[in-house]
Design a protein that fits this description.
Blueprint lengths: L26 E6 L5 E4 L2 H5 L14 E3 L7 E6 L11 E3 L2
Antiparallel strand pairs: 1-2, 1-4, 3-5
The structure holds zinc ion.
The site of zinc ion has 6 residues, from loops.
Length: 94
């Protein structure tokens, strides 16, 4: 894949989840805020920006939560791991 950005990532820990992992079958991307909110995040806009090989950690500061948090933890999960707690309130800032 020639996304033109992967060469800029020099200090990624081996095995860190990449955004592209969230697009694989039976996987999904979730944002988990310190306030307890969780939300499913659609990775497609970021994929379209050529960020598929970015570690999801690098995208955490692009999320905003209604509680005011300016960084929200991202997790790649299997579809069976959908949270039972409250969802929503977290959105992609850019
Ligand atoms: Zn929050």
């Amino acid at each position: 894949m020639a996304d033109g950005t992967s060469h800029q990532i020099a200090t990624v820990a081996y095995g860190a989840p990449r955004l592209g992992h969230a697009t694989q079958a039976r996987s999904s991307l979730w944002a988990v805020c310190r306030c307890g909110r969780q939300a499913g995040i659609d990775p497609k806009p970021w994929i379209c920006q050529g960020l598929a090989r970015h570690p999801v950690e690098a995208l955490e500061e692009r999320l905003r939560c209604v509680c005011g948090a300016r960084r929200v933890r991202l997790e790649v999960r299997g579809l069976a791991e959908a949270p039972a707690s409250v969802t929503g309130g977290i959105y992609v800032f850019r």
